[in-house]
Amino acid sequence: MPRIPIRYCWYFLIILHGIYFSYQLSKGRYVLKDSEEYILAGENLLLEGILYSGEWKGPKRIDFYTKRPPVYPALIGTVKWIGGFPFLLLLIQNVLSLVNFLLAWKLMQHLLALQQVKINESPFLPILIPLLILLYPAQFMYTNLVMTEILFQFLLTSGIFSLLIALHSQQAKYIIGYTLCLCLSIFTKPIMYLAAFPHLLGIGILSWRWRKLAMVTWAVIPLFLVLGYQLHNQQRTGYYHFSSIQNLSLFQYTTYNLLSQEYGAERATAMNDSVLEVMFTIPSYEGQQKLISSYSIGILQKHLIPYLAMHLKGMANFFLDPGRFDLYHFFGLEEVGGKGLQRTFSEEGYAGIWQYIATQPIGVLCLLGLILTGNLIRWGIVFWVLFNKRLPLEIRMVIGIFIVYVAGLTGTSGASRFAVPLFPISLGVVGYFWVAKNQLGKGSK
């Protein structure tokens, strides 16, 4: 079979981005519920100089001062200041998406270089990779939505790639690049702020092993920034925390879904409402949040085994979810089946999913089935590589830790969009596997 030049993959990617970009501009469905808060935060940052993710005029909600971290609102505010929103913002995200595919390619080259394998000796690579890309439309849909996913994807992919290069070269400049990407990602997605602690440990160990004590500075910077930002939030709200979305998610989603699973939706609503009634009698925001936190943690501890099972199901969903909601919104499909797949999964588990699926149009089911198949293949290969001893352990550990961290911190809300930031990394690992398999055999035992 004649070999397909690799450059055709890039032509394919550019055309595919152009199709989704043009479609979204013509339809104008670039805003989700979360998008509205990011836009408001960006406008308030631009016009008032204050990070606030609600309407500036009218009564203020304290949680809106800290709900959205500053990096993405700052990007939106900059675009609004320049003009051309949303065209320019979506264009920037399309460029970032293409850069992320380039980083995936560079990651594949780096992993193969460790084993002295040439990419151009592998057949079917220009077929396999575009096929897996086609089977992951979430990449292109979120590229054309006002959401943090693609910016976060760029920061995460750049950071992981820089760290892998650092492990091979032992050059501190790559540690600096990785640390800067991590810091920006922390202030893009709240789930990343806890990464400051393993970062401190990991870079501290590397500075000792490499005898480069100056690297300790870069080990502590993310932690200092997180602690400083939480103090800043305490000054603004009276409560020491990183983002108000933490307690919101814990109470409204994790705790509620666990109670729904254990007692049914009606009783879960009544139990949470009773806590809200007490909360509204507490005058301080700190007192309100501590009540919500202690109540939620108490529920999780009381139902620890069911919670752990639900958390693990959420992580499985993180890797498998074909993104029904994303497809329905992006392409303007009419909702069928009531409360949606994610809520059905949270309340009824996999048994409820099968009943929900039976209500969906056959065309949508076929598309979701293909996407699910692509996810199974891609993540199956990734985990095969991570447990195979052919790659150095430290390389597999870095990739595996970031994957497990994002999946684990996403927890019970393991919807399709939360896995989008890891797509380039997974694609690069799959490309490595395919080339290495053809050149080095089926792998060592």
Describe the SSE topology:
Blueprint: H1 7-27, H2 33-47, H3 71-82, H4 87-113, H5 125-134, H6 138-143, H7 149-169, H8 172-186, H9 196-209, H10 216-237, H11 245-263, H12 265-279, H13 285-302, H14 304-320, H15 324-330, H16 341-357, H17 362-386, H18 393-410, H19 423-440
Helix pairs in contact: 1-4, 1-5, 2-3, 4-7, 4-19, 5-19, 7-8, 7-18, 8-10, 9-10, 11-12, 11-13, 11-16, 17-19
Structural overview:
It is globular, with a radius of gyration of 23 Å. Helices cover 71% and strands 0% of the residues. The model has no long low-confidence stretch (mean pLDDT 91). The relative contact order is 0.12. It contains 19 helices and no strands. The protein has 445 residues and is an all-alpha fold.
- Structural class, judged by helices and strands? mainly alpha
Oligomer: single chain
Helix content: over 70%
Number of helices: 19
- Rounded to an integer in angstroms, the radius of gyration calculated over CA atoms is 23 Å
**Amino- and carboxy-terminal Cα gap:** 31 Å
Query: What general outline do the C-alpha atoms trace?
Result: globular
Give start-end ranges of low-pLDDT stretches: none
Instruction: Tell me the strand percentage band.
Output: under 5%
Major beta sheet summary: none
- SSE sequence, one letter per element: HHHHHHHHHHHHHHHHHHH
Number of strands: 0
Mean of residue pLDDT?
Answer: 91
